[in-house]
Design goal:
The protein is an alpha+beta fold. It is built from four helices and nine strands.
């Protein structure tokens, strides 16, 4: 399941570009690899992130994984629902399981993200 309208990173984040912002989550492939998510540590609103910097920690029954900023920008919103219902990442990774929204600092970085076809090749679909 790789939605066509999204952009992707090689580290399995998805990005939905919404005007000057980027909504970020982890892909269906990533959540399946993680297993049942039990805890999410979200960034602070207002935090400035550089592309590739650790933004979120997601813990599952199997492991803890870092989620990286797919582009540089300022965190303008976080999904507070995940604090009490981290399993939303497993149930709806492209919907209610989103993690945070960045105000994009450098639009050029968006063009470096993978499209759906390139991401499918990466994960062997």
């Amino acid at each position: 399941m790789v939605p066509q309208e999204l952009r992707y990173t090689k580290s399995h984040e998805w990005v939905r570009v919404e005007g000057g912002t980027a909504r970020v989550g982890i892909t269906d492939y990533a959540q399946k690899k993680l297993g049942d998510v039990v805890y999410v540590e979200l960034p602070e609103v207002g935090k400035k992130l550089k592309k590739g910097e650790v933004a979120v920690t997601v813990e599952s029954v199997k492991a803890a994984e870092s989620v990286y900023a797919p582009v540089s920008g300022e965190v303008v919103e976080v999904n507070e629902e995940l604090v009490s219902t981290p399993g939303a990442i497993n149930q709806d990774p492209y919907g209610n399981g989103w993690l945070f929204v960045l105000k994009v600092e450098n639009e050029d970085e968006l063009s470096e993200l993978l499209d759906a076809e390139a991401y499918k090749k990466l994960i062997g679909e």
